[in-house]
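Category: protein sequence paired with discrete backbone structure
Discipline: computational structural biology
Format: plain text, a pair of labelled lines
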Amino acid sequence: MKNLRSFGIAAAILLAVGVADARAGLITLINGPVALQTPAGGTNPNDVIPGLWGYIGADVALTGVAGTSYLVTFTLIGSESGFTNTLVTPGGSLTENNGITAPFVLAAPPSVSYVQVATGGSDLLNFKFTTPGLFDLVNGSNGGFAIGDPRTFYLSFCNAATPIVIPVGGCNVSGNATTGDVAWLALDDSGAGPDDNHDDWVGILSVTPVTVPDGGSALALLGAAMAGLGMLRRRLS
């Protein structure tokens, strides 16, 4: 009976693990992230996510299961900028044109998405920021920038959600997470000089899987689990 009970439990665990593995998908910072806290006061505060620890000087990669498709979604939350900045992706563009007058957070945030297939390594996400008269900031060329450099983007995996809540302590500390499946993404366009306030385009980046195990594998796992549980019930009855 002990062996049958173990078999049934193991089959159920196998089914759960198989589904969980197929649903894993992460955003990871690569190429040397540098910790940065967005300013909450001073001459150029961040007017959307003030006082939040995250990183600049890094590029953003999809680190998912090889051959799995992932939905990459960008949502524009707000901005404070004298320039007009646009996020460009294969699924469309998001342009902020709020200017420098409050409110700085949008009442109805727009989103764009595209699908990317993971190779099993660190696959750069496909996006860039454009600003008229300035160079394009492409994911893949942000790594290596330092505090004080012009035109950098920033990411934080701490509480990337709406309504915006900036936590005290917890994840909001220097050296916080460099991976996750949802992140703040924010641009400093250098319009007021390299002030590192990163509120010239502020949004949320998320990655979710769009595929599941093939039908045959899923049915085989389900069958093994049900058979194990059925044998256990008969033995105990």
In short: Residues 25-211 form one domain. The CA atoms of residues 47 and 72 lie 26 Å apart.
